């Protein structure tokens, strides 16, 4: 089963090194042409850079908000507590095409031009449930007495946050951030509606896939980014399991 | 100095405001636009002569409703098959892998971290008429002419999406299986039940909430799909999501597109309500 899951991915890597624009057996021969073309392709590199910017912004916002949600929900009793928790998880149950057109309509009505910022705003919403779940799971295991002790000894809440809570959560915060980063970095269905003239890599890829001759270069870039994402995932997993 | 009340406001206000502005407000906006009879520039001030015209158009279009039905059916099949196929992987990880479990978990995380578009593209390259499967079969002499039916069909969309979701589906099932108290299984064994009975009477019922949650988690993104159908489905494999996307891009009829989107939102929320009736999803998450 696991072999079957890997077969198509391996085939893509083979394709990016194959001397041809279709994946036809027998293979034509080994080449690095596509990777060379990739390095000189400004539009492609620009899209990849945009993805990094968007994913960094979205992951940072989602992690900060997910942290606030999980702290508020676990450490306080208040009206709207369950509403807040439900709201933070709700983006998971709305299909991206629906949220995509909804955000598109909102930005249009407000006269906000579509840009990398609007994509990042949308991604921060869909990544929030992941950050909240990861941080909640970790915070449940933390002893609230540690925070109370700090507060009893005269630390204000912001100080307690900075000196006690965040250091204790450290690896989980990073793991949540990396997970959100990957969610945003790979997202296309929502970004399609929110991108202006400057696309992220998945949006760019989606737009270019019609042109068969472009395919090997696009796949080469995608393989490079895939290796990066896999490394980030492994780091996130490592951080989570160490806690 | 922030007191306890102040701290709460400091924590709860930003996510509340953020989600209201970027999640609740846009959805309300789409609902409001769907009641507009006219196509035209949208603003908050003008154009609020509300009507049910767009919904009437949806109800009066048998082909759209059929497409909705087809998409629900496809999402159902994809979510069910992906959940069933992911189960043995998760089971192996939770009960059989033992010390090697972390390695297998990593092996499972890698494909789920691989770009979604890339994995869809992989199937396009595999299924195409001069793609990997056809050319491989010709090369080894099994067939002479390429099989033309592989790509650009509903089946291609279903196969591709099942493949895409399996690793993602295995993770929550694995979590559900791990939470099963092993002493229940030991007790069943002590009371004389064999491995199959233990599986059907203990393991499956105890992991059932996790299975329902997994099904929903695959069903929702699948019903909204429009990217995969374009890439591997062609005209025969289009889904309801393509219809919505069309009205926001080429056709440029936002009120009608909004009505179609609201219908989809309704279907999804209905499914979530039904799922919550079957199992307490909050307990699955916690």
Structure description:
The complex is a heterodimer of chains A (243) and B (286). Chain A is mostly helical. Chain A has a domain of 168 residues: MetI-like (MetI-like fold, Orthogonal Bundle), CATH 1.10.3720. Chain A contains eleven helices and no strands. In chain A, helix 3 runs parallel beside helix 6, helix 3 crosses helix 10 and helix 7 packs antiparallel against helix 8. In chain B, helix 3 packs across helix 9 and helix 4 packs antiparallel against helix 7. Chain B is 75% helix and 0% strand. Chain B is globular, with a radius of gyration of 24 Å. Chain B has a single domain, classed as Orthogonal Bundle (MetI-like fold). The longest helix of chain B is centred in the first third of the chain and has 35 residues. By secondary structure, chain B is mainly α. Chain B is built from 13 helices and no strands. Chains A and B meet through helix 1, helix 3, helix 4, helix 5 and helix 6 of A and helix 1, helix 3, helix 4, helix 5 and helix 6 of B.
């Amino acid at each position: 089963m696991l072999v079957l899951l890997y077969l198509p991915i391996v085939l893509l890597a083979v394709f990016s090194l194959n001397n041809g624009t279709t994946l036809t057996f027998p293979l034509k021969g080994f080449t690095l042409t596509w990777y060379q073309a990739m390095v000189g392709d400004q539009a492609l590199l620009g899209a990849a850079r945009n993805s990094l910017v968007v994913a960094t912004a979205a992951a940072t916002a989602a992690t900060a908000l997910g942290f606030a949600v999980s702290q508020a929900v676990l450490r306080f009793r208040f009206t709207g507590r369950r509403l807040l928790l439900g709201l933070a998880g709700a983006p998971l149950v709305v299909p991206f095409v629906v949220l995509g057109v909804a955000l598109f309509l909102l930005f249009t009505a407000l006269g906000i031009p579509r840009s990398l910022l609007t994509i990042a705003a949308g991604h921060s919403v869909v990544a929030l449930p992941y950050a909240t779940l990861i941080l909640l799971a970790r915070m449940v295991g933390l002893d609230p007495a540690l925070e109370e002790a700090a507060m009893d000894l005269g630390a204000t809440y912001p100080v307690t946050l900075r000196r006690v809570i965040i250091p204790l959560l450290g690896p989980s915060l990073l793991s949540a951030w990396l997970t959100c980063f990957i969610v945003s970095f790979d997202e296309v269905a929502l970004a399609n509606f929110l991108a202006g003239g400057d696309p992220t890599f998945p949006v760019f890829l989606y737009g270019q896939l019609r042109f068969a001759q472009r395919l090997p270069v696009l796949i080469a870039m995608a393989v490079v980014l895939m290796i990066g994402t896999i490394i980030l995932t492994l780091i996130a997993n490592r951080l989570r399991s160490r806690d | 100095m922030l007191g306890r009340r102040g701290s709460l406001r400091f924590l709860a206000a930003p996510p509340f405001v953020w989600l209201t502005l970027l999640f609740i407000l846009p959805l309300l906006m789409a609902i409001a636009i769907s009641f507009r009879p006219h196509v035209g520039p949208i603003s908050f001030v003008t154009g609020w002569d509300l009507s049910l015209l767009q919904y009437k158009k949806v109800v009066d279009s048998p082909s759209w409703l059929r497409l909705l039905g087809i998409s629900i059916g496809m999402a159902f099949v994809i979510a069910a098959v992906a959940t069933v196929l992911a189960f043995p992987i998760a089971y192996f990880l939770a009960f059989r892998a033992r010390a090697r479990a972390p390695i297998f978990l990593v092996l499972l995380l890698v494909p789920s971290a691989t770009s979604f578009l890339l994995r869809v593209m992989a199937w396009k390259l595999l299924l195409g008429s001069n793609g990997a499967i056809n050319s491989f079969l010709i090369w080894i002499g099994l067939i002479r002419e390429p099989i033309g039916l592989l790509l650009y069909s509903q089946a291609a969309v279903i196969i591709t999406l099942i493949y895409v979701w399996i690793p993602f589906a295995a993770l929550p099932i694995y979590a559900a299986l791990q939470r099963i108290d092993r002493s229940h299984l030991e007790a069943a064994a002590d009371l004389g039940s064999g491995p199959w009975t233990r599986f059907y009477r203990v393991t499956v019922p105890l992991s059932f909430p996790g299975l329902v949650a997994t099904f929903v988690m695959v069903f929702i993104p699948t019903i909204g799909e429009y990217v995969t159908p374009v890439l591997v489905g062609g005209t025969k494999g289009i889904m309801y999501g393509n219809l919505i996307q069309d009205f926001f891009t080429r056709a440029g009829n936002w009120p009608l597109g909004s009505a179609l989107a609201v219908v989809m939102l309704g279907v999804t929320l209905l499914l979530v309500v039904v799922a919550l009736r079957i199992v307490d999803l909050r307990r699955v998450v916690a």
